[in-house]
Amino acid sequence: MTQTFLPSTMQDDYQLTILPLFRPGRQVHADSTVTTFTGDGYTVATFAEVAESADRLAAALTSLGVRQGDRVGTFLWNNQTHLEAYLAIPCMGAVLHTLNIRLFPEQLAYVINHAADRVIIVDASIAPLLARVRDQLTTVEHIIVKGTGDTSGLGEGLLDYDDLLAAAPSGFEYPEVDERSGMAMCYTSGTTGNPKGVMYSHRSTYLHSLMVTSTANVALAETDKMLVIVPMFHANAWGVPYAAWMIGADLVFPQQFLQAAPLSRVIADTRPTLTGAVPTVLNDLLQNAPDTDMSSFRLVMCGGSAVPRGLIDGYRERFGVPIVQGWGMTETSPVGAIGHPPKDMGGQSETDWRVKTGRIMPGVELRITDDTGAEVPWDGESLGEIEVRGSWITGRYYEVDDPEKFHDGWLRTGDVASVMPNGYVMISDRAKDVIKSGGEWVSSVDLENTLMGHPAVMEAAVIGVPDPRWDERPMACVVLKPGSEVTADELRAWLSERTAQFWLPERWTFITEVPKTSVGKFDKKVLRARHHAGDLDVEIVA
């Protein structure tokens, strides 16, 4: 029997694309501002002025032969130029490909060729990074340069961004495109093998932007001023630029000036109310610019890796600012969960809830599965791999088959976690980083967070290493704060009062820094390789 349904009376064919997101920003919020820090001062433009530049960029790209579906790469800092590309490229029907400036040369060449970028817009200050792979690029027809710098390695025929826009007509007529068509690409950080591409649709980005403005997320509003620290090449800067544009929130871009001193200046000068960053950046600000006046902030979002309790407590005690933890990945656009404390905290402190990974966002479904693929209960104890699905979750990689990553319509995240009955997720480890000692799970994330609560510890990474008796045991890799001294014995004794006894590491090593991936996450495979090669000075403490 044919299944029927009662049709709605709604305009269900209305296309959720970047264009209806673009329009209110340029018209309704024309006077909202975009501020870019230049290192010694600021440039300021209104949304109306940015929209005009976006129109001219779309016209210029069209004159270069860019058509619907063509990929345009951006090799840019967080600034107004990058925002213009964010708006113009998808609205004209092309695909914005944000290039990670921190990729190794061979990875950079791979993603440009794999995406088949026809045009690249590059900031002249980082042109030498692109020049290293110029002769390997097989699809790039035009390189557009913004600003001044050494562009000699990029070859001949370069186009100047400002000259192109000055010569282009205003009033570009944007086409109507299908909401299911691709609008932006971002590649994974490529910690193992080649990076994999995720093609975001207009629809997924529109819905994700709405979610960022919801109270379930950070409630981004017109009254906010957002400091965009998260790189714009990383999952659309966590969706913030599009969300801010559609709602009319002022934007502040720090470009490459992400060290504690310039960030402190930008905060003092521009008085933002919101920001988001990885723990490394926020910790640098806390340790090296503790006198920063952050009284303008109502909230700081932190993600990319587990947020240590000490960082949360430090921001509350030193700056009077709450940190909310977010979870996601390139494949989830990225925000999938966020860690606001619930209305009933069940006798736990606010920090106890903020260190949890967070509650899954409306619009995203989550389950956890065991090694057989069977679901495990939401009891706060049972561990399994997080799998998600939803309207801004990818269902495949761009022109790469990876059946192991997708399970019956669900994305396998690689994160091992438990889920409480009220939907709060607590990640214990990455699947590739899990430590199983004597048949028992050891959470490297919990150990790291606890260790980073010690007043002498700047960073701590915990890896599993072979053990003849227990098969595997945790080893602590510790970075001390400048001027601080503490022994492995003292750290183990301190840790013993705060964690399960069988979790306590016997092996300790002090290092100058924890290696990071291109998006600022701990790169534990490097530490495991260094341990295997005997490059770490390991102390045994029992």
Characterization of the model:
- The structure is a single chain.
- With 542 residues, the protein is an alpha/beta fold.
- Among the domains are: 185 residues, ANL, N-terminal domain (Rossmann fold, 3-Layer(aba) Sandwich), CATH 3.40.50.12780; 107 residues, GMP Synthetase, Chain A, domain 3, CATH 3.30.300.30.
- Helix content is 27%, strand content 25%.
- The protein has 16 helices and 27 strands.
- The strands form 4 sheets. Strands 1, 2, 10, 11, 12, 13, 14, 15, 16, 17, 18, 19, 20 and 21 form a 14-stranded mixed beta sheet that branches. A 7-stranded mixed beta sheet has the order 7-6-5-3-4-8-9, with helices on both faces.
- Helix 12 links the parallel strand 13 and strand 14.
- Helix 1 crosses helix 2 and helix 1 crosses helix 9.
- The longest helix is centred in the first third of the chain and has 17 residues.
- The chain is globular, with a radius of gyration of 24 Å.
Give the CA-based shape: globular
Rounded radius of gyration (Å): 24 Å
CATH architectural label of one domain: 3-Layer(aba) Sandwich
The averaged pLDDT comes out at: 94
CATH topology of one domain: Rossmann fold
SSE-based structural type: alpha/beta
Low-confidence stretches: none
Let me know the largest β-sheet. 14 strands, mixed
Strand content: 25-35%
Q: Distance between termini? A: 70 Å
Q: Tell me the total number of β-strands.
A: 27
CATH class of one domain: Alpha Beta
